[in-house]
């Protein structure tokens, strides 16, 4: 069911490493058509595509859900679910408060000032998936960092079938301002361009299917986006202290998301590698999503034997996984060599689901190898920075000749004159 290989040589991993992906032409062209229609016809286009694609015909005045319905949902959900949501919001808020950047001001000896102001975005759009499943955890992990950053309005959209009590409760607890029952590329277009009913936002965040991802890609520029998220992925570094049943459970936890998910185990213990397939089968036999997980493991799963933990770290850095578990002796020391990973989970008592729901850091992480250059979603994604410059007369006189020299070297004589007229 799951393939096994041994490295080094590390080039054997090349067929399994993430490759740049292009959106298929039908999706790309279909999304472009929807976005152009929304830009031209606003609410009428959003209603048309919601009726066509989702089979739901709601007039614009019924898209927004009143706040009273969110509050009522809090009372309808099970007590343990409400308590878990409240705890998650508290933990995520406390973690992300430490990401706030106050900016700085540098006062020069001559009275000149240089500084950086950090300002929250005014309005952010949050896409909440609502197709095969609804994810209240996604609401929390996207909305709370935005709220901590000081975003004035968080506008959530979700397909009509995605409006569950758990999602409504999460919106209420996490700081969402308004919620609209629209989804798909047409909802992304409404957020990006604005309509008579849906306000235009400055940035769009949140996961979605390939149509939503492509819509975010196409509107990026006029509005900001968080990232183009691909299928979820995990890589587990394990040594002889790791238990096959637990490693198998962690691989399945990722594989059950969808058939395109990726789950790797890199181990220095040949016995663990040999025992994993049977452990996977035992757990899959009682998993309701076994067909999805089995397809994922067969297509994208990998057990990699390496002679040393240093080699395991090399594999992790080559893969740059979204989630990296280190189940070894002294996992902190192993982690010191990791350069590329979205989030690192240390030790046998830290399975990846603790990060999905409750630990504190946002679970919105870079996928597809983009952890080489991208970071987890955080408060810094919901602010903009402004440079602040104040020159005194003395500073301008001191710098004038250099500014004029550089401007004229670039052939920008008006730049030079803007300084020259103040000092000559």
Q: Could you name the key traits of this structure?
A:
globular, Rossmann fold, alpha/beta, 5-stranded parallel β-sheet, 3 domains, 6-stranded parallel β-sheet, 16 helices, 45% helix, 424 residues
Rg, rounded, reads 25 Å
Report the helical percentage. Answer: 40-55%
Q: What is the terminal separation in angstroms?
A: 80 Å
Q: Provide the succession of SSEs.
A: EHHHHEEEHEHEHEHEEHEHHEHEHEHEHH
Structural domain tally: 3
How would you summarize the topology of this molecule?
Blueprint: E1 3-6, H1 25-41, H2 43-54, H3 67-76, H4 79-97, E2 104-107, E3 113-120, E4 123-127, H5 136-149, E5 153-157, H6 165-174, E6 178-180, H7 184-193, E7 203-205, H8 210-219, E8 224-225, E9 233-238, H9 244-255, E10 262-267, H10 270-284, H11 290-300, E11 302-305, H12 309-319, E12 323-327, H13 331-335, E13 343-346, H14 353-357, E14 383-390, H15 393-409, H16 413-423
Parallel strand pairs: 1-11, 4-5, 4-7, 5-6, 7-8, 9-10, 9-12, 10-11, 12-13
Antiparallel strand pairs: 2-3, 3-14
Helix pairs in contact: 1-2, 1-7, 1-8, 2-7, 3-6, 4-5, 4-6, 5-6, 7-8, 9-10, 9-11, 15-16
